Amino acid sequence: SLDSLSQTLWETEKMVLVYLLINVLVLGTIGFFRMAGLVIRPVERLVALANQYSNHDPFRFVTEDSGSEFGQLSNSLNSMLVRIDEDRQTLQHTVTALEVANETLKRQQREMVHAEKLASVGRMAAGLAHEIGNPLSVVQGYLGILLGSEGQSEQHKDFLRRSGQEVQRIDKLIRQLLDFSRTAKGSPKVFSLHELLHSVVEMVKVQTVFRGIIIDADFAAEEDGVYADCEQLRQVFVNCLLNSADAIYMAEQDGLDAVHKEGGRVSVTTALQCLLPNDQDQGQEKKGIRSSLSVFVITGLESLRNICLLFLIPFIRARSRARAQD
């Protein structure tokens, strides 16, 4: 009958629906675990590796299957981390270089400010020396008048002569300071190097930086005529002597040797050195062996050899032009 047939179809449909539901559940479960193994777990593993990443281990994103899409993604991430690490190192080097350049600029700025201050002090000292020269001339005149007046005892005359000598010494120092501060025109000429060195030594040894320092001058060169710019050489020699005094002072501050007990010593020496004919100027006739004049500024303390090593090298070698012009 129709009722029984309808009941049979309904039972069959229910069985089909139950089978379909069971199949959907089974296939969904299998698909979920399969999807979890293929997608979710690799992504979670990549996230965990990203959280554990450090600079010392740039190749952390490694998968078991390097040929899959996640393997390619891991390789891309590793390449990106390598580039990031290289860029970070480059940035660190750049920052370090900028810090060094900044410190250099600051040091140069301080040196420029200090040099400007020294230049200002030099101009002020030159102006003050010029103003002091006029009263000294008046004092010298009055001392000469008193020394030439009658009725003076020998003791008073001796006092006046000594006072005049000291005033002349002050006047000489002031004139040396004015000559040193005067702007040079930079014209080379033939002059006596020994006389220049003697005037430089006499000028610097009264400075405060040379207090307790002995300057030994040994001008052993038989010929001292050189052709050069006198004022520029004067500046060079003054700077070298002041640098040697600074080196001795630094050694005292660092505790090297007994500088404060024995005192420092600076030696200024000259010597002639032979030049072979092939050392002569081009275009000049070879007239045998010629001589060159070398100057040395050497400190006396053993521990300052490394500090003043630059002064062990002859820093001027000028050909004697007096004989060349004969």
UniProtKB/TrEMBL annotation:
<feature type="domain" description="Histidine kinase">
    <location>
        <begin position="127"/>
        <end position="301"/>
    </location>
</feature>
<protein>
    <recommendedName>
        <fullName>histidine kinase</fullName>
        <ecNumber>2.7.13.3</ecNumber>
    </recommendedName>
</protein>
<dbReference type="InterPro" id="IPR036890">
    <property type="entry name" value="HATPase_C_sf"/>
</dbReference>
<feature type="domain" description="HAMP">
    <location>
        <begin position="37"/>
        <end position="89"/>
    </location>
</feature>
<feature type="transmembrane region" description="Helical">
    <location>
        <begin position="16"/>
        <end position="36"/>
    </location>
</feature>
<keyword id="KW-1133">Transmembrane helix</keyword>
<dbReference type="InterPro" id="IPR003661">
    <property type="entry name" value="HisK_dim/P_dom"/>
</dbReference>
<keyword id="KW-0597">Phosphoprotein</keyword>
<dbReference type="Pfam" id="PF00672">
    <property type="entry name" value="HAMP"/>
</dbReference>
<dbReference type="GO" id="GO:0016020">
    <property type="term" value="C:membrane"/>
</dbReference>
<keyword id="KW-0812">Transmembrane</keyword>
<dbReference type="InterPro" id="IPR036097">
    <property type="entry name" value="HisK_dim/P_sf"/>
</dbReference>
<dbReference type="Pfam" id="PF00512">
    <property type="entry name" value="HisKA"/>
</dbReference>
<keyword id="KW-0175">Coiled coil</keyword>
<feature type="coiled-coil region">
    <location>
        <begin position="88"/>
        <end position="118"/>
    </location>
</feature>
<keyword id="KW-0808">Transferase</keyword>
<dbReference type="InterPro" id="IPR003660">
    <property type="entry name" value="HAMP_dom"/>
</dbReference>
<keyword id="KW-0472">Membrane</keyword>
<dbReference type="InterPro" id="IPR005467">
    <property type="entry name" value="His_kinase_dom"/>
</dbReference>
<dbReference type="GO" id="GO:0000155">
    <property type="term" value="F:phosphorelay sensor kinase activity"/>
</dbReference>
